[in-house]
Automatic annotation (TrEMBL):
Entry keyword annotation includes Signal: yes
InterPro entries referenced in this protein's UniProt entry, alphabetically: Multihaem_cyt_sf, Multiheme_Cytochr_ET
Protein name per the record: Uncharacterized protein
Ranges in coiled-coil conformation: 205-232
Species of provenance: hydrothermal vent metagenome
Keywords: Coiled coil, Signal
Listed Pfam families: Multi-haem_cyto (PF13447)
GO MF annotation, one: oxidoreductase activity
Amino acid sequence: MPGSVTRDKGRGTRNLRMLVFGWLLFLVASSVTAAGIAPDGSFDNMNCIGCHEKRDNELVKAWRVSAHGKDKSVADCVACHGNSHDGATVKARQDETCIACHGGQKNPVVHSYANSKHGLILKLERKTWNWTRPLAQANYRTPGCAYCHMHAAEHNVSAMVRNADLLQKDSKEMESIKDATRQVCQDCHAPRYISRLFDNGEKMLEIARMKVREARDLLSQARKQYTREELKPAEERYQEMRSVHLKNVYLGIAHQSPDYQWWYGQPALDGDLLRIKGAISELIRIKNASLAQQTQCAQ
């Protein structure tokens, strides 16, 4: 019938239009992905990795070997960037994102930087900065956490951090750290100035090591004469000396924070060493007094 033929033609035309429209959507979506335009949506960490491994596998590999991604992931894509592309880079570039995971404002890692010249300038000016700019080429007047540790989109945040025991000198590790650090510092500072800071920092750290080693050797000798219980106060002081105050010196050097190089660092180590010497001297005095009393009684 003529009417049914007309309806069939109409349905066929609509189906054809829908098919063409569908292909156009597919082509647009493909071109968006190919052009690098971020898709909309809410993502989890596996979504991010699945896409970015194809787009920039080196970036994902760098994250995997870092302290953030190695072994058990402690800071994944979503933790730093959020779960959408909207403002993802801006969020990751600001210190608040890092501080939340690194112990808060009073943690020495955070506090040492916050009290440095860099940290104070950032605190005063950060609200006026354009955080959409890349973390490179001195785009910011002073560096924050991400500018140094994720410079130029470097996702291995461990590249500038010492992993070895601070009491030990690791020349190979130190050269690697120097190379990574220079890439950041030279955005703003002259090479000679950077080298001078490295040399001064190593000398300062070696002075701190000498104090810790002296305390270690004193305790090593004392353990041959006194019980664990007798040496407990000195041993506890030594553990704080090595794990807290030596690290404070290192953080003061790394973050260029005078408060941590000196007040929380070297003088704190001096106090630890004096107290350990005092504790051992007291044990010696008590032991000598006891021996003298025994000698008198024997006479």
